[in-house]
């Protein structure tokens, strides 16, 4: 299917499903890519549908290490065979009336039909529940499946009221304690990064103004996938973390210091470089922390704090590291001779 410019507004769902197949197989034209992106951004249910299809494409590849290099139809055939043979995530639910899309991705639509249909069987947009927090607010929410999500400040969570397939959209930061259900993976979309679990606890940070998405695992096992160009998904276990960089669409493992500080209200630094300490303080207190001298960046700080004020942490840094602290509203500058 190649688009005619004058027919964009008359496209039906099958057309967009076909575009998703082209996108995943990397056979989409520049014009088609623009049309697909506009449709995805039009409403949350479109975005969720697209992200779930893309996530399944990547996750199946992650489990078998077989690149999709045979072209669109052959690649989708491979995906279908993986699911039919019992690969992870392969619960098949019959679906009717999607002949055009089924040529490319019957397995994907079958898997996610229960939740991510763009319109319900009555022709109405899918209904979404939403929770949000403002500045300084935190809140915990119990989902229909028994999972508990704790939202950090300035965050928003959306999920379909028909929670048959466990999938949500996150903006901001949240800690997830997911109820285990091996038949229904739990999927979170956040700024282009997709995190998939069966039952575990982990943290996701994906604020709109930041250029990264950070996933840190407290227990269990999760799989994180980025955009199509981000490479293979990353599997994380307890104590591990990954960062997805939006500008470069690069996804990889990365050590993240104090990822759960906002929830535990504690900070712990064990021989942590000052450049990392500055980043943690900026994230935790919502301020800008700058090192005036590059020689300070590699100096290592040791300290542990329970529900500390910013002033308490800065006083400890100034005393132990021999630095000078200058504070101007929400901007802090640390200067000194370094540790060489």
What brief labels describe this structure?
FecR; Jelly Rolls; Phage tail protein beta-alpha-beta fold; elongated; 13-stranded mixed β-sheet; FecR_C; 3 domains; transmembrane; three-stranded mixed β-sheet; 340 residues
Number of helices: 8
- The overall pLDDT, averaged over residues, is 76
Shape: elongated
- Give me the CATH architecture of the largest domain, please: Sandwich
> Mind telling me the CATH class of the largest domain?
Mainly Beta
CATH fold node name of the largest domain: Jelly Rolls
What's the number of domains?
Answer: 3
* Protein structure class: alpha+beta
Instruction: Work out the helicity level.
Output: 25-40%
Separation, N- and C-terminal Cα atoms:
64 Å
- The SSE order reads HHHHHEEEEEEEEEEEEEHEHEEHEE
Structure write-up:
- This is DUF4974 domain-containing protein.
- The protein is α+β, with helices and mostly antiparallel strands and about 350 residues long.
- It folds into three domains: about 110 residues, no CATH class; about 130 residues, Jelly Rolls, CATH 2.60.120; about 80 residues, Phage tail protein beta-alpha-beta fold (3-Layer(bab) Sandwich).
- The protein contains eight helices and 18 strands.
- A hairpin with a 5-residue loop joins strand 4 and strand 5.
- The longest helix is centred in the first third of the chain and has 21 residues.
- The N terminus is likely disordered.
Short characterization:
With 340 residues, this protein is an alpha+beta fold.
